[in-house]
Write a structure and sequence with these properties.
alpha/beta, Double Stranded RNA Binding Domain, 4-stranded mixed sheet, two-stranded parallel sheet
Amino acid sequence: MTDLERRLTRLTTPDLTPPVLPDADVAYTLHDTPIGTLLLAVANGRVVASSFGDEETMTTRLARAVSPRVLRQPGALDDVRRQLDEYLSGRRHAFDLEVDLALATPFQRLVLTDLPEPTSYGQTTTYGALAGEIHKPKAARAVGTALGANPVCVVLPCHRVIGSGGALTGYAGGIDAKRFLLNLEAKS
């Protein structure tokens, strides 16, 4: 054994374990689903993102709007992932999750806060009807834009809002994902 090897042996600690990081201010993970990969994030026990957005863009938004400490910590999202998987397999009709609209604009908050009432599981409404619900009857396009940038997709069911003629229009995950979700709910 060389002198260097002897010195290195003294530095070896057999009981050394990797550090345990404290919970992040924002914990996130990427979750593969039948409708695409969703970036899921929680802060203070509330869902702040369920988004089709790319990882870099979403983590940057989270760092700016919620906390600069954003870490990939899948374990913190186990309940969110479980409920999402149950929903996507038709075994769950409502989420039991607290939501924080930190990534939403004031107008999005207005639209998304009212969203669950006219859009229960298996039901749809139109952009115009939703605009009327928030007392802005001429704002159907603005409602569509707000829903198209919904930071908490699926959990806040913007996929249940359709065009006035029944057309499936705009969805962050694409029309196929919107169709999948509506068909899933129609079957249950």
